[in-house]
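#onboarding

Welcome to the new folks! Below is a worked example of what a typical request in this channel looks like: someone posts a single protein sequence, and someone else replies with the predicted structure as tokens. Don't worry about understanding the tokens yet, we'll cover that in week two.

Example request:
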Amino acid sequence: MNNIVGKPQYGSTTLVTDPRASVLAYTVSQMLQRRQTPSATSPMESVAEAWERVLGIHRADFSLVAAPLVPPPGPLPEFDELVEEDLARRGVATGRLRGIKDKDREISETAAAVKLDTLRVDSEYAQLSQQSMLEGVWERLLDNEPDVVAGVLAIAFRDDEMATRALEVAGDCVVLELIAPSLDRAIPKKKPGVNRKGAASIVRASGIDRRDAYRQFVLGAALLAARESVAVAPGIEFVDVSVLTLESKADAVAGGTPKGLARFFITRSAIAHANRSLPADELVLSCAHASRISLGRRGGLRPVTMEYDKTDKQAITALLDPDGNDRSVRERVGQLTTDALSKSGEIGSKQLKRLTENGSAVVDSVRRRVSRTD
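Example response:
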């Protein structure tokens, strides 16, 4: 099946997808339901969980961001504790005459009252100061200030399966770029299945099954990044997502040309109303403005030509960990800046100029399409 999506599919009810991925997802879910003891994980369950993570990556749950609220100050010390602390600090003996002891205690009580008031005022002032600072950042986030939005997204993407970054924030639209690992690194070679005797077993996954899963994984991770963007940035209404890949580590080291796997444009409204029980490819085809997605003849993703500046290769290579350490990849994603893109020319200014010229037209076009479908 060779399906190239070249026009918006928003609200379409005609879904073009391979049912094999859905069958595999059903098999995986059945395997996990048969688990006898949740605390013990067998090799079969480990494989099933790995496939469930790949096929259901876009279904992850997370909370929507809310206006920040600094918690109230913690409890203050007890008055009697402060009195005893002051008496001990001044070395007042417990066996002194009652008159002298009462005088000492009165002095300590006064000191304790002053200290308690000071602690209360300091804690309330610290709370108000922090609340004021956070409210300022919140207002900037609502106004879609690029630096604030990019910083929030870098934190949100830190633990994602794919290295992800926000290229630009133009008004209420954010442009995302994901670097997908190769099929061999992303998809397990074994899957839950049935052996020749009809018993549940771990079997070798066919090339078609793995390509099907890779398609779901790539598009699912892209959808997840779009969902995270609108969840943590309340002012973002449109997400432009591109997924690129370098086929091997050798390509990354040698500065190979990145290959485009998918690109789509999705709105906050479409994300909110998407049925996440569907496979990732069906969701993209049904609710996203898919402009460049290529589904290969046997169900897998086929590289497609995408517009990008060749000097982007430095930044793309920087997203990939030469040692294959995924955690290091994720930690470095948030550290990339436009300076990294500018080492070999004026790539940063070129991208910004292109987004400024085309961003408004694209957003207006999508708004018109959405209004016609609503």
